[in-house]
């Protein structure tokens, strides 16, 4: 009967999913040893004059057979175990090393942004580890931005706050990623030395069609500025979205409209041409 069939297909697809996840977990472990990971860098721009603000480092995984597994697939698997810590540590070391020279010569305000999972920012010793790595590499702390998500505040809040404060004391910037999709309480946010709000793509997607969305984005930008934060919109694909964000006084944008994520060398070459235009 029908019910049997449903149960059966459900089990089959669940089984497939579990198998795929353990396959990916295996690739991650292998990849950390054999270097399947590399980075792309997506430019962030100042909205008013299209000057370069900096880059977000985005991790990629390429298997020996040449196939690519997207971060949308392997990051969630890594987040179910401590593998995410190893990936993020690898990303930080590589990104900081690759951008050290650029940052040492960059104009004031230039940033390299890295993603940090909720698990890491809420672990004791995280800030120390980052500071140690900056010191070892010789990377200027003022050029590092750490992107956390609102889920970070759902974990051990005290440790998260402690880590954020320690990082801020050393000049490291803190961005709240995917802003507008989660459940950060305003009171909590006001208490934290966050420096940037990153408005999620899903809100930008509907900015033209939905008046409610438009008002919400406008309000987040206004509120961000009241909190002494700067505001960036991500996933901006169209000129029309750009125009609205400019009208709303958004500071920066990141999105396909001006650039996709770039290979390291391509990112370096836009620094050469665009740094000069920054200040
Ligand atoms: P995210 O941090 O929100 O990163 C932005 C994602 O949006 C990237 O996808 C980027 O390629 C994509 N994107 C940027 N502009 C546009 C646009 O205009 N249109 C569209 N359609 N997409 C755009 P990606 O690289 O696939 O990364 C997916 C997610 O994986 C990231 O979302 C982030 O949550 C996670 N991730 C990536 N790298 C890392 C990492 O090193 N550590 C951790 N913990 N997570 C990472
Ligand atoms: Ca991000
Ligand atoms: Ca995001």
Summarize the structure.
By secondary structure, the chain is of the alpha/beta class.
Description:
With 279 residues, the protein is an alpha/beta fold. The protein has helices at residues 2-34, 71-79, 83-104, 118-121, 126-137, 157-169, 186-190, 201-205, 211-226, 239-247, 264-278, and strands spanning 37-46, 52-62, 68-69, 111-115, 144-149, 173-179, 196-199, 230-234, 252-254. It has an eight-stranded mixed barrel, surrounded by five helices. Helix 1 (2-34) crosses helix 2 (71-79) and helix 1 (2-34) packs across helix 3. It starts with a helix and ends with a helix. Residues 56, 115, 147, 177 line the site of one calcium ion.
What distinguishing features does this structure have?
eight-stranded mixed beta barrel; binds calcium ion; 279 residues; alpha/beta; 51% helix; single chain; 9 strands; binds ligand C2E
Unreliable stretches: none
Helical content (DSSP H or I, runs of 4+)? 40-55%
Main β-sheet description: 8 strands, mixed, barrel
| Terminus-to-terminus distance | 70 Å
- Structure class: alpha/beta
The outline comes out as: globular
Secondary structure: number of strands: 9
Average pLDDT, all residues: 92
Write the layout of secondary structure elements.
Elements (H helix, E strand, L loop, with lengths): L1 H33 L2 E10 L5 E11 L5 E2 L1 H9 L3 H22 L6 E5 L2 H4 L4 H12 L6 E6 L7 H13 L3 E7 L6 H5 L5 E4 L1 H5 L5 H16 L3 E5 L4 H9 L4 E3 L9 H15 L1
Parallel strand pairs: 2-4, 4-5, 5-6, 6-7, 7-8, 8-9
Antiparallel strand pairs: 1-2, 1-9, 2-3
Helix pairs in contact: 1-2, 1-3, 2-3, 5-6
The protein binds ligand C2E and calcium ion (CA) (2 copies).
The site of one calcium ion has 5 residues, from strand 6.
């Amino acid at each position: 009967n029908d019910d049997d069939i449903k149960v059966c297909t459900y089990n089959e697809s669940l089984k497939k999913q579990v198998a795929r996840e353990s396959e990916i977990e295996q690739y991650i472990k292998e990849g950390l040893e054999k270097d399947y990971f590399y980075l792309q860098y997506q430019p962030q721009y100042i909205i008013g004059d299209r000057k370069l603000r900096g880059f977000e480092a985005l991790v990629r995984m390429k298997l020996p057979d040449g196939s690519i597994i997207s971060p949308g697939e392997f990051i969630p698997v890594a987040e179910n175990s401590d593998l995410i810590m190893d990936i993020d540590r690898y990303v930080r070391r590589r990104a900081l090393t690759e951008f050290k020279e650029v940052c040492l010569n960059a104009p004031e305000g230039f940033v390299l942004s890295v993603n940090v999972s909720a698990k890491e920012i809420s672990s004791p010793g995280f800030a120390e580890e980052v500071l140690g790595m900056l010191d070892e590499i010789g990377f200027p702390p003022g050029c590092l931005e750490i992107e956390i998500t609102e889920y970070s505040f759902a974990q051990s809040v005290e440790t998260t706050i402690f880590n954020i404060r320690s990082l801020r004391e050393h000049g490291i910037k803190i961005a709240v990623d995917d802003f507008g999709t989660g459940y950060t309480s305003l009171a909590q946010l006001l208490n934290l030395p966050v420096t940037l709000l990153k408005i999620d793509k899903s809100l930008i997607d509907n900015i033209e069609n939905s008046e409610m969305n438009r008002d919400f984005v406008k309000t987040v930008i206004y509120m961000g500025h009241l909190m002494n934060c700067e505001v960036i919109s991500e996933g901006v694909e169209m000129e029309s979205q750009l125009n609205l964000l400019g009208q709303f006084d958004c500071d920066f944008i990141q999105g396909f409209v001006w650039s996709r994520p770039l290979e390291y060398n391509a990112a370096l070459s836009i620094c050469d041409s665009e740094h000069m235009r920054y200040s």
